[in-house]
Amino acid sequence: MTREQSYNIALEKQREVLRYKKATFDAAMQNLQKTNPDFAKINSRLSFLGAQIATVAISGDTATLEKLQKEMTELSSAREAILKMASIGDIVYDCNVCQDTGYVGGKICDCIHTAAKELLINDLSANIPLDSCRFENFDLNYYPQKSADNTSPRKYMTSIFKMCREYVINFDPSKSESMLFRGNTGVGKTHLTLAITYELLNCGFNVIYGPAYNLFADMETEHFKEHTNNKYNAAINCDLLVIDDLGGEFVSPYIQSLLYNIINTRDLSGKPTIINTNLTMAEIGTRYTPRVASRLFNYNIEEFVGSDIRLLKASEK
């Protein structure tokens, strides 16, 4: 689901609910109008008084105006009493700011921003473990205090963890740097990029996340079978593009060109990209092209260390 799709869905859901509320209210009012003669008479008289008051107000006849206004107030009270007895109240809106229209002053209401954000997060969570990959549950205890070479993987990964949190806090779609997370399988690359993705989505940024094999396969299918480039355009225009597990996809000449174009276009427009990979820089240059590797050399490259956390967790069971 793209950000645009999430907004369209959120707006349509809001409108559908509003249509239902109005239809239910109108049906109840029409039924009361037919079945309660007093209610019908009051409505007719109130309509007449409204026109009369407008005319009298212009004439300046204060005494008549006050008399008509008093009658209108009494009839309005009687009407409200009938509505209360019939258990018919005003429409209760989910959002009192926009009254469920989705717009305030020609701009999209905050309720739609929130709903669209939740749709994106839920859509992403349906395909990947977004809920289990947050900053709050990134456990640094799985990284040893000291390794055989007398370095501290935990201290090193703590600095990467803090850097990722600061990246979210200071994120700017036109200024934040691109990052390449490199390391063996299971050392936390996907967890931290998903945590970044969740936090930025929750802040309302347009983030596209996906494993390389899914992103590129979808773009290739769309380009050659559907003759559109919507997913490609979304990838180069979003606030942040996250490509997970680069190297896990089937590489064709088209994929090589696609990857270069995405990286180069986003780089030229100043839009940040985060890429995770198990490949070395030399392997990237061989698998794709030296041009791709040279672009990635300009990224902030972080080398993840440690043992496969998934295996460590499995051994605890």
Q: Strand share of the residues?
A: 5-15%
CATH architectural name of the largest domain? 3-Layer(aba) Sandwich
Tell me the span between the first and last alpha carbons: 36 Å
- Largest sheet geometry: 5 strands, parallel
Structural class: alpha/beta
Shape, per Cα inertia axes = elongated
Order of helices and strands: HHHEEHHEHEHHEHEHHEH
Strand ordering within the main sheet: 4-5-6-3-7
Total E-strand runs: 7
Low-confidence stretches: none
Describe the structure.
With 317 residues, the protein is an alpha/beta fold. It folds into 2 domains: 18-94; 128-316, 3-Layer(aba) Sandwich (Rossmann fold). The protein is 60% helix and 9% strand. The chain contains 12 helices and 7 strands. The protein has a 5-stranded parallel sheet with strand order 4-5-6-3-7, sandwiched between helices. A two-stranded antiparallel ribbon has the order 1-2. 24% of the residues are buried.
Architecture blueprint of SSEs:
Elements: H1 3-35, H2 37-59, H3 62-85, E1 103-104, E2 107-108, H4 110-127, H5 153-169, E3 179-182, H6 189-202, E4 207-211, H7 212-226, H8 230-237, E5 240-246, H9 253-268, E6 273-277, H10 281-287, H11 290-296, E7 300-303, H12 309-316
Parallel strand pairs: 3-6, 3-7, 4-5, 5-6
Antiparallel strand pairs: 1-2
Helix pairs in contact: 1-4, 2-3, 5-6, 8-9, 9-11, 10-11
Structure keywords:
single chain; 317 residues; alpha/beta; Rossmann fold; 2 domains; 5-stranded parallel beta sheet; two-stranded antiparallel ribbon; 7 strands; 9% strand
